[in-house]
Amino acid sequence: MNCLGDCLTGERVYHAYKQLTPIIHRTPIVTSHTTDSIVGKQVYCKMENQQKTGAFKFRGASFKLMQLSKEELSRGVITASAGNHAQGVAHAAAKLGVKATIFMAEGTPLAKVNATRNYGAEVVLTGESFQEAYHASLEHQSLSGAVYVHPFDDYDIMAGQGTIAFELLRQEDRIDTILVPIGGGGLISGIAVAAKHINRNIKIIGVQAEGAPAIYDSYHTDTIQNLSKVSTIAEGIAVKEPGKLTFPIIKDYVDDIVTVNDKEIASAIVYMLERNKTLMEGAGAAALAALFTHNDKIKSRHCGVIVSGGNLDIGTMSNIQQLAEQINHMKPKASIAL
Asked: Of these residues, 41, 52, 57, 64, which one is catalytic?
């Protein structure tokens, strides 16, 4: 490899792809004539909600742990997570017989907390958002000596997530645009570098929640914007600060970033559930929501949509249904037919 730990390249992502292929699911792409007719494009949803642990995060976590030495693994690993990275690290650590300690925000959906514990990790709930849990995990790491596995600001993590692009473009090589949800930026960084390594003309469009637009604001103002608070049903992408490593990559490789609000996200969740019998969580629905909301701006004939996860707290479905109904009642012409 040309990259020795301090950068992200297509070669590094391909190395991750070769290492991960035997242990991850090659997730399917889902197409729908109804969706195609609504947006006037061929749409290919990459179903990472069907990945091990129910989200793409198992890719990056597994690749990161595979790069650690026996001595490092013996010290255990520690991280903070909005939920899906927690499960990815916990499962990857369990397969290697490594102790994992995960810090999560107090409001993390119970389904994600329980799943993480079921993989054998120790879970510490603290703070109101990812950022508070992250800072608490750093303090604990300095005392414990465990290896820190950052959820997004790590080149090995990004490389693992970027393997999605190699898979997707082997499944459908006509794709000219990929819509990718953004929290801290690890997923889109890996996908953008990998996709443009294969075809530099592919457009990469990032999607943030309107209530957590740190990278959207930073990207469009060219100044790092840190948020004091975030509020969205897409808790998996509710990050207050851009990644120090991810943001420069995003600036160099991503063609545009848009936002979607909670009603639009909820509408996409309900649409996918009713049309394709598939459950997406809020973060996993963000890219599809952007396709419907910003369709006129997305100049594409063959559009890939990253459905990043499906770990939804079922107890929130009534609220999601109500939000979806609001947008459909308010904007009937732009609504998604349910």
From this structure: 57
